[in-house]
Design brief:
By secondary structure, the protein is an alpha/beta fold. A five-stranded mixed sheet has the order 3-2-1-4-5.
């Protein structure tokens, strides 16, 4: 039969425990342990102490034994529970993240790395945040190899940074394959405590191509929806620009290197209209065309969540968005100089070259 530890207190110890119990600064846990020691010294059994204090008998026995063995230091602090957390080798973690991939996967997750390092996933997550590692994100990157990159860059950025009030500068491009999607069932509207819902499946009701030109100076949009994306449609759009811009002013058009924009029929029309001046972005540098910002806006604000039962309904929605935009247009302000962009491209080229050389060796 197990016998409870006997506690005999000196006058100083009893006074110390009593003072702890009466003090308003003592924690509740420490007060309870001091009461256990005093009641045990008075000869009470563990079950009676547990009943009086409203705690378990095992709890009483544990703190009674600790006080009997170590006196006040035995109840002052909690003993450590479990094993100490395992430290992670940061260098090993970074090496795994940047130079390896997990088996049968393209990138690391917290659970996969935790299994390799022998820690839990939350620990890996904390180290990722501390080191700035984000394996779940991927940024697209393609450096232009255009031999005339510098000349084209300086030409276009020069038009952005110092737009003329008398010479329109229009950024032009096509947003092809805009789909008229109709959901199979109506979704639920947004309300407090619930997000808007949409079915994952849809009905495909056709497509259209939006050709748009953004006026760099004032942000206005000239837009036209066409069924296809050929030189015929591009010529129709050029004629629309010709009708909607002052006849006595030159027009500078910024476009990408898509073959449609350089078709012989287009070249012939441009020769007949010398007030139009074409500026082509470098290859693999569509980000330099400012109209892409407008395409992003119309996608997120009107198209992505839109429900369209037909192509004419889709075209009407696009035209309404453009008309609303043009009521109070705001130009996109270009802030990066050609020199800043060029330095960034040079750094990217160096990183890619060093990576390729390391792979070859």
């Amino acid at each position: 039969m197990r016998v409870a530890a006997e506690i005999v207190l000196t006058d100083e110890e009893r006074a110390e425990l009593t003072k702890l119990i009466r003090s308003k600064l003592t924690s509740v846990r420490l007060v309870q342990r001091a009461q256990i020691a005093l009641l045990a010294a008075d000869g009470m059994q563990n079950k009676d102490i547990a009943a009086q204090l409203g705690i378990s008998r095992g709890n009483v026995g544990r703190w009674r034994e600790r006080y009997a063995a170590k006196r006040f230091s035995g109840i002052e602090l909690d003993l450590p529970r479990g094993t100490p957390p395992r430290k992670v080798d940061v260098n090993q973690l970074v090496e795994l993240m940047t130079q390896t991939t997990p088996e049968a996967a393209t990138h690391w997750s917290t659970r996969k790395m935790a299994a390799v390092l022998g820690v839990n996933a939350s620990t890996v997550s904390r180290y990722w945040q501390a080191t700035g590692l984000k394996p779940h994100l991927v940024h697209s990157l393609k450096v232009s190899r255009d031999p005339q990159f510098v000349e084209k860059l300086e030409d276009i950025v020069g038009l952005y940074m110092s737009p003329s009030e008398h010479v329109p500068v229009l950024c032009c491009d096509e947003k092809s394959q805009v789909q008229a999607l109709d959901r199979t069932k109506p979704g639920l509207l947004l309300k407090k405590g619930r997000a808007q819902t949409m079915t994952h499946d849809y009905k495909h009701n056709g497509t259209t191509t939006l050709i748009a030109a953004l006026n760099v100076l004032n942000g206005q949009i000239i837009g036209q929806c066409q069924q296809r994306r050929t030189n015929v449609e591009w010529l129709k759009f050029l004629k629309k620009i010709d009708r909607e811009t002052p006849k006595d002013k030159s027009v500078h058009l910024i476009a990408d290197n898509y073959a449609t924009h350089k078709h012989p029929n287009v070249q012939k029309w441009l020769e007949m209209h010398p007030r139009f001046h074409m500026h082509f972005t470098p290859t693999s540098a569509s980000w330099l065309n400012m109209v892409e910002r407008f395409f992003r806006d119309i996608t997120t604000e009107r198209l992505r969540r839109g429900v369209f039962t037909s192509v004419p309904e889709l075209i009407a929605a696009i035209n309404d968005y453009i008309a609303h935009h043009n009521i109070a247009p705001k130009p996109f302000i270009w802030t990066k100089s050609a020199r800043d962009i060029l330095q960034k491209v040079i750094r990217a080229n160096r990183r890619l070259s060093s990576k390729q050389n390391a792979t070859l060796h």
